[in-house]
Amino acid sequence: MDEIKRRHYLAVMGIPLWLSKTISAQSIDVRPPVDVRPPVQPKPSIPIQKEQNVTANTIIPKDNTSNHTTAQAMPPIANMDWETLATQVTKCQACHELVTNRSQTVFGTGNRNADLLIIGEAPGAEEDKQGEPFVGRAGQLLTSMLQAINLQREQVYIANILKCRPPNNRDPSTNEAQRCEPWLLRQIELINPKLILAVGRIAAHNLLKTNIAVGKLRCKVHQYGLQNIPVIVTYHPSYLLRSPGQKPHAWKDLQMVLKLLNQDMVILEDWK
Ligand code: URA
Is 124 domain-assigned? Predict the structure, then answer.
């Protein structure tokens, strides 16, 4: 990464910069880098049905709106491959209010073999429009946070607890999170990441099945699921936008992410 970009990302994270005498402050361009996001996905048209309970064993009904007369019955979510999973999510009718308000589902994006899986809350207005997680203001900060530790969005996988936008950006309900869980579980299983970074309260609480405040869940390595995948919890970028004074804490969390990914020795006492 070039020095100017690195300085921009560190500045966004609120990390004080030491300037060498040979680089003047005026020479630092803090404009965001060029947008390299993949093109917008088309909106699927979704028939509205009654609420449906989705479980890992749910067999998604055949799409009767398609012309594929030879289509096979779908496997349970827990057995789906990537392509089936991505297609079937677009047809999910589990939560009536979300289905009636969404423009499209937001499946997840990035490297399906990533070491790092980032899990947020739910799509917002911009994500609902574009069909990709973390592309609004909070997403831009998340992208800069990753770049500050030398990771590009395309190297990691990014998903949310919910695949649909809750109206008016309200918190996902417990039922919605539960109904949506099998999709995310299967994504986690397929990615099998080295590390999960849970951003914000909703992600942390749903993944770790706890109600403990994010501030208290930070600075520990938690474990997720039967595979005992290490989980680090940090503040949500939307919260950091509202409370920039917390950015240095998030920066420490990111340093810990990097150390764990590189399997360096981790001294937890240094992490506050
Ligand atoms: N906030 C989230 O938690 N996820 C998104 O995709 C966008 C904003």
Answer: yes
